Amino acid sequence: MTATGIEYVRPTDLEAAVALVAEDPDAAFLAGGTTELDLALKDQVVHPNRFVDIGRLPLRGVTRDGDRLRVAALTTMEELAADATVRDRLPFVREALLLGASTQLRNMATIGGNLLQRTRCRYFRDPEVGACNKREPGSGCAAIEGVARMHAILGAGPSCIALHASDLCVPLVAMDAEVDLLDADGTRTVPLTEFYRTPGDRPDVENVLRHGELITHVQVPLLPDGVRSGYLKVRDRTSYEFATTSAAAAIRVEDGTITWARLGLGGVGTVPWRAWEAERVLNGAPANERTFRAAAEAAIRDPFTVPGTAFKVELAKRTIVRILRTVVTP
Amino acid sequence: MSSATTARSTQVTVELRVNGRTYPARLDSTTTLLDALRDELHLTGTKKGCDQGACGACTVLRDGKRIVSCLTLAAQCDGSEITTIEGLAEDGEPHPVQDAFVRHDALQCGYCTAGQVMSAVALLREGRAGSDDEIREFMSGNLCRCAAYPNIVAAIREVADS
Predict the structure, then answer these.
(1) Stated pTM of the model
(2) What topology does CATH give the domain B96-161?
(3) CATH superfamily of the B11-87 domain
(4) Residue A103: its chain B contacts at CB < 8 A?
(5) What is the per-residue pLDDT across A228-286, written as a single tens digit (0 to 9) for each?
(6) What are the chain A neighbours of B141 within 8 Å (beta carbons)?
(7) Which value, to the nearest 10 degrees, does the dihedral of the CA atoms of residues B149, B151, B155, B157 take?
(8) ipTM score over 0.90, yes or no
């Protein structure tokens, strides 16, 4: 065991936790640990000098408030997947949760941590690689010229093609989920679709969180009556693998016409991707293959590809068509 | 333990409760549960495979739920009930899952086996052994490079059916 020089503290209330991170630019929250300990202790690409362990703070559990679900940020993935309301009223959220990681990791990983998981880009996660604009702003991007099968084609650009690999976030952006944030100045609520930042010329800035600010809850509207949902994950092995492409769809069909449509995409975006253009195609259109293909074409418009990711353009479209077909077919 | 931060310390004092015994320990703050079990408590049944959350060899139970001990700090487990492979036998009799693994020859080199067994014990408690497909899906966090998978599934299946 090598000494890492990292301090460990376990405050007993939220305000103290926020203060302990806010006061030190190199302090970091520690929740489930599946991302933070991996990056800090194993890959050694982030360098905190203090872990503020929030794991036992009273931020656990799921409550229903009318047609909304309020998920405390330290609820684990397994706990959320087991929730009765999620099972009945947000089935595609449950599917996405259970298709992610392994049971061991789902017993550890928290919902807040899932939203904040860092990219699996192997160049970002390898400190021997010099060129990574996300790790070292201005240093370049090794992935652009590298092995990029698991990288993004939407929201990407010459500075960064790192993928946001969450499954859970795909149905959450489709549902207009919101995150409640807390820091020393108070609380605010941000729609998940506005929480993430595409890389632009600052790939190191991934979301709107300020240092010391904490996700306390995720609010998710429940699916309206008559809406069917599903999550399709396409990947290189059957289980325990990140998505190559994925899609979360929620659709209501009345008399052959789509009257309510939501679509989120995974495996393709630098941020969890809401397919707004595809939804516009779907709404009011007949529920048939022609509509589904048109929606898919609208969803994957102007992709930024490199040789390793070019195959994802067609694969993502077919993923969309298949989940739409699956969801509308009783 | 104290959360006082007046004196910055990179050491922690913890009480690890493992297999019903309490072990006080003074550790570097970033010591993983896996390293604490093996190097401090000398409970070497739990194995270090990838040491990065990918292989499941280090699976243990924390308060009854399976986790990977390589991505857990010992400090995070202060006061939690940990169960390792050494804690499964009762009165010298192997746990039914251990017994089934032996009879089904559910291993070759054996390095992943402690993790497989701990994961299988949890899987049975979770009620996720309804079919071979379900067993395969919910055991997917435990890799076996010898590919003893068919026999692992058969062993779990037998315990689930008994």
Answers:
(1) 0.97
(2) DNA polymerase; domain 1 (1.10.150)
(3) Beta-grasp domain (3.10.20.30)
(4) 66, 119, 122-123, 126, 128, 138, 141
(5) 999 999 999 999 999 999 999 999 999 999 999 999 999 999 999 999 999 999 999 99
(6) 101-105, 240
(7) 70
(8) yes
